[in-house]
Amino acid sequence: MAPTFRSPPLEFCTEFAGFGCCSRETSEEIVKQFEDLNATIPMLESKEECMQFLKEQMCQKCSPFSGHMFTFNDKSLIPGLCNGYCQQFYSKCKTVIKYLFINSFPAFLNIQTKMSSFCNYFKPADTSYCFPDLRTNEVLQGGMTKLKSSNEKCLCLEPIQDTFMSPIQAQRPDDGTGRIFVVLLSGEISVYNSDGILISDKFFNISKRIRTRENMGGDLGFLGTSFHPNFKTNGKFYVVYTMNKTNSINTGIITRFSEFLINPPSSNQVDLDTERVILDIDVPYHHHIGGQVC
């Protein structure tokens, strides 16, 4: 699971020590990235001051607002920047900036040569979250002040994978294993542990049975799944998906609601032959089908 707002003591990103979205592992990763940069950038006149700029920016990965600040490129070390601050940073650190994303950010090579291009790229879609002005944003910081002084439990969210093709759902049955089941529109379900590590990408796959749009969009495909309340003991879970049916009245497509059985429930692969069809419904149109299973 992602860390709560009550993060552990941090020696590098001290701004967020005790309250932020950094685990020790994330903090160590930021430190390594910073040290690698420091070793890569030659001894330029502006280096020392610019490394302080970069430390401030990189540590925003620990901010409770990091999801809003790093939306334009997951590999970027720089958050969304306020225009005045960005211009100041660019003016002082232009000679350093070119070393930031040599290997991981090819598009950066085209925008680093002009201040206007650089600052336009790093301008967040919602300027309420630009750095560093969000530090003094009364609405945002007012909410954080209340949370810091309360006993409310909050969670920071973090991605476990960034290459899913049309994910539609993530399920976590109350079976004591902590497994996370990620459902794809294509008809596949993968299993991850509570740390976001892939356990099996072969848990469930009915991609050959279902009907989807060729571009993997729209309302056709694998539409939803839900685990039985007693899944821990009976291993039952339910799915709804669209499939071809020659005797369908209008479109040649039906929505099917089925039960599958996992035996034992702790297994990480489903026997597809256990399917028990509960209900077939003719699909009059290719859109607005819905499909969430409760």
Automatic annotation (TrEMBL):
> InterPro entries under this entry?
6-blade_b-propeller_TolB-like, Folate_rcpt-like
User: Which keywords does the record carry?
Assistant: Disulfide bond, Signal
Domain Folate receptor-like, first and last residues per copy: 11-130
Q: Pfam families given for it? A: Folate_rec (PF03024)
Record keyword Disulfide bond present: yes
| Superkingdom classification of source | Eukaryota
Keyword Signal listed? yes
Q: What is the protein's given name?
A: Folate receptor-like domain-containing protein
Q: Which organism is it from?
A: Pinctada imbricata
